[in-house]
Structure formats: structure tokens, C-alpha cells
Amino acid sequence: MDLSGFVLAGGKSSRMGRDKALLKWREGTLLDHMVDLLRTVANPVMVVGRDSLPDRVPGLGPLSGIATGLEASFTDVNLFVAVDLPFLTHDFLKYLRSRIEGSSRPLIICKIGSAFPLCVGVWRPMLPEIKRRLTSRERSIRALVEGGGSEIISEAELMDLGFNTSIFRNINTEEDYRSALL
Questions:
Q1: N or C: fewer beta carbons within 10 Å in the chain?
Q2: Is residue 69 a contact partner of residue 137, using CB atoms and an 8 Å limit?
Q3: Which residues does the chain have with pLDDT short of 50?
Q4: What one-character-per-residue DSSP string does 81-99 give?
Q5: What is the reported pLDDT for 148?
Q6: What are the chain's domains?
Q7: How far apart are the first and last CA of the chain?
Q8: 2 Cβ neighbours under 8 A, 6+ residues apart
Q9: For residue 53, how far is the Cα from the chain centroid?
């Protein structure tokens, strides 16, 4: 099954004070790292929120970025990851891809504690519902997930599969970044 991948990189990075996507990470930038990682399970991989694929409606958060990606997608099955999740692994993304492909649900996401990290599988037929929510100024991914029809992978399930939930650690502040580099 074909799977398109999208790195969401259009945020304001207000808590960081500078563009998170351009932070130095390993041999390149955080954006380079996330694109390369996503390419291990998806083709094509596109970056939402940058010159080549700007948010169609900027300032409405990740849900708007997901809508932009779905509009540009060539496949029914899509995987979206935030640019600030550098600890995701190939093995986890491979697992998530298999869950997305085998699910009858149009949206698949993990729940860690009370949070839904921005690493989500979305079937293209979700686009009208996402657009409806955006038109109504409902920008919450949480509300979309909790509105029904989603497959939620629990923290316990992930741990039983051998995944450490620290892979969802994100970088929002300078302190997070310095800590991540250690």
C-alpha cells in the first residue's frame, strides 16, 4: 500500500524563540532529520509549512497543516509527524505504518499519558471532516481524535510492544533542545 509522509514544520516556534526546523541536529537540521526518518517508511515525503507546500490557511495550527497535506497527497494513506519529534525511530514508524494500513479507522494516533503526540496516520477521506472543523474554527486535534472514529494506541500497548514512550519527547524550548543534545 502506498503511503505519503508529511513533516509538519509551519509552526511559529514561539516558545523556542527561533525556527525549530532549522536547529542543528546530527549532520544537518532537525527538518533534514525528520524528512530522512520519514523516508524510511513513506514515499513521497513532503514538508508542510515551508515554501514548497505552505499551509493553505496559516495560523490555524497542526490541523490546518494536516488538511494542507491531505489536499496535496497522492495516496489515501498518510503519515504526519511534527518536526520537533527527533526521537521517533524507524522501527516505531514501521510499526505505525502497519497499523495504519491494517486499520479500518480513518485516524490512528498514540496516547501518552493525557497527550496525543503529533505523529498520526490519517486516511485522505478525513479531509472533508477536517475542513469542516477548520471552517468552524475547531482547531483541536484532541477534539478530532476524541470525536470518535479514531484508533488510539495506548501507552501500555506501546510499552508491551517494546517501544519506550520517550520517543515522543519533543523540543519546544531552548532547555528542551539543550537536554536533547546530551
A1: C
A2: no
A3: none
A4: EETT-TT--HHHHHHHHHH
A5: 81
A6: 3-181 (3.90.550.10)
A7: 38
A8: 43, 74, 75, 76, 77
A9: 15
Exposed / middle / buried, residue 180 (Cβ in 10 Å: 0-12, 13-18, 19+): middle
Distance CA 169, CA 86 (A): 8
β-bridge pairing 24-25 and 28-29:
antiparallel
Q: What pLDDT does residue 11 have?
A: 80
Tally of CB atoms within 10 A around 153 = 19
Query: How many whole angstroms separate alpha carbon 34 and alpha carbon 98?
Result: 19
Instruction: Supply the pLDDT for residue 69.
Output: 97
pLDDT (0 to 100) of residue 179: 93
Give the per-residue pLDDT at 97.
Answer: 97
Distance CA 128, CA 6 (A): 18
Which grid coordinates belong to 124?
485522505
Q: Which residue type occupies 84?
A: D
